[in-house]
């Protein structure tokens, strides 16, 4: 039975490449045409494949509907939270998760630092969009035209001497973040607070959330915090794999 399921599922990536006829499906599976036809008929009955007028098969609309429904029902916060807790236990610093919604970047989860000095941030509170590391990651993923339009509409408060001064500098920073795949806020919002962040991606590779580790200078220096970047990125990658349902790549 497991072999039958495996063969049936192997048809789907083949049809994702484009319509195929019965002979092509049978050849790819290494089975007789009668076996391939039984599998295709079963998938067709469930709406996962569709037989065209030219007798070739393509992916069915039901498959796309199921995928869309699954994505809509995913809760990135629920998936990410255990990973955020684990990261907090390893490093001891404040961990945040943020998303981009309706022109704002909002914290949707937070795990407090174990140290006495705490950060003033709340779940549901918008971040400082022009300087926050999580905001840079989320906005850097926007198409270039949207990035430029957004940059032109923002105000650029000078929270500190390191704050992003204007739209030109903001766009340059977003381009840098987009290329390197991670972001920092080193005293841009508060002189004494530093932050490193990494993106959480969906199955299509787009950034769906951003997570960060933040700490005050009195606890750890900016240089020391940056040494945590590999750990932060591994955590974000683990969340991304679970969110997108992908299988981890085995290490050699």
UniProtKB/TrEMBL annotation:
Q: Which UniProt keywords apply?
A: DNA-binding, Transcription, Transcription regulation
What PANTHER family does the database record attribute to this sequence? HELIX-TURN-HELIX TRANSCRIPTIONAL REGULATOR, ICLR FAMILY, HTH-TYPE TRANSCRIPTIONAL REPRESSOR ALLR
Concerning Gene3D superfamilies, the annotation shows:
3.30.450.40, Winged helix-like DNA-binding domain superfamily/Winged helix DNA-binding domain
Organism, scientific name: Streptomyces nigrescens
- Report the SMART domains cross-referenced here: HTH_ICLR
- Pfam families registered for this protein in UniProt: HTH_IclR, IclR_C
This chain's protein is named IclR family transcriptional regulator
All residue ranges annotated as the HTH iclR-type domain in the record:
2-61
Domain IclR-ED spans what residues?
62-245
